[in-house]
Write a structure and sequence with these properties.
Rossmann fold; 7-stranded parallel sheet; about 350 residues
Length: about 350
């Protein structure tokens, strides 16, 4: 059996790592990197640290508008699929790479398997929501992280070949967490004291493309009682520069740093007093690491983390963000969510079974 894996962005590298380890010696895997994330700290370092095989194809698509980027990926992926003739195309998550890979395969009548199917924010202003919905509706096999995801699909009439496997990111985190604690020196390099800083990430369009909202978030960070370590995404950095906010960020408590590799990022998460983020993946990593999380969005796909009390939705209002952070209390319970690190193996077992 031949599987072609389509990846292009940081979260997909993390998810694909666990599945690729399970694939070895069982099936043939061809990795196609669209080039959606091409910065070394957002791409190459993840292949190195997570032991992902080098891509067979790197399309080098890079940045662009959603339409132009997805369209260019679609044409280039189609050419590879015609050449390779895989039995399955495996896609992850909700990026433009996800949709392009699934659509190219579906048009060629090649089976599509979607890892992280069934997530919904119910906010169609998010490009990721459109990508999720369309990918789920053209997939032949849907791997869900939770029962909520299964129910979301059922409401849309998708019930065939839907499988709960848990979250494959758990595999990568548990595989890497101990290594990060032992090998990463990022805490010492940045001169941080464990448990005495906030870790922040902001990259979603709903925050970076709205100057009022982004300024509110930054003002909240500046008002906090400890240093805010902020690995800054290129999009966010450009937005701050373009908006030219009336904020003295250089002399504030915000410590801007370059995007982090996986080991260093996990180490920063492990040692933070709280994580402030609009990233879906980091919400889950915070949960597994038992670090309180404040989500800088108006909704989340990972509703179970909110229901557990370990994650709180804060939106983009300065006063609400500060109120939540200052009044947060760590829950007494920490239920198991999204699997315990064997998801990659389950995905491959299911793919092999479906192909027999």
């Amino acid at each position: 059996m031949k599987i072609l894996t389509v990846i292009g962005a940081r979260p997909q590298f993390i998810k694909a790592a666990a599945v690729s380890r399970s694939l070895q010696h069982r099936v043939t895997e061809i990795i196609l990197h669209t080039g959606q994330h091409y910065d070394k700290n957002l791409s190459k370092v993840f292949f190195e640290e997570l032991d992902i095989p080098n891509p067979t194809y790197n399309l080098g698509v890079g940045s662009g508008t959603h339409g132009s980027q997805t369209g260019e990926m679609l044409g280039k992926i189609e050419a590879v699929l015609i050449k390779e003739e895989p039995d399955w195309v495996l896609v992850y998550g909700d990026t433009n790479s996800t949709l392009a890979g699934a659509l190219a395969a579906a048009k060629l009548n090649i089976n599509v398997a979607h890892v992280e199917a069934g997530l919904r924010s119910f906010n169609r202003r998010m490009p990721e929501e459109i990508n999720r919905i369309l990918t789920d509706h053209i997939s032949d096999l849907l791997f869900c992280p939770s029962d909520v995801a299964v129910q979301n699909l059922k409401k849309e009439g998708i019930t065939k070949n839907v499988v709960i496997v848990g979250d494959v990111m758990a595999d990568s985190l548990f595989y890497t967490a101990e290594k990060a604690a032992q090998k990463s020196k990022i805490i010492e390099t940045l001169g941080l004291k464990p448990g005495n800083y906030y870790l922040a990430t902001v990259h979603r369009a709903e925050n970076t493309d709205d100057p009022h909202r982004l300024k509110n978030i930054l003002e909240a960070f500046v008002a906090l009682d400890a240093q805010v370590v902020f690995p800054i995404h290129p999009r966010t950095s450009q937005a701050i520069e373009n908006y030219n906010f009336d904020l003295d960020l250089e002399n504030s408590n915000i410590k801007f740093v370059e995007p982090m590799g996986y080991l260093n990022m996990i180490r920063l998460e492990q040692s933070a007093k709280m994580i402030l983020t609009d990233s879906g993946g980091i919400q889950k990593e915070a949960y597994w690491l038992r670090v309180p999380c404040v989500t800088l969005r108006d909704e989340t796909e990972w509703v179970e983390t909110v229901e557990s009390g370990w994650n709180v939705i804060a939106g983009g209002d300065k006063e609400r963000i500060l109120h939540i952070i200052r009044n947060y209390q760590v829950p007494e319970e920490h239920p198991d969510l999204y699997g315990v690190g064997q998801v990659g193996q389950e995905i491959i077992d299911c793919l092999i079974e479906m192909s027999d």
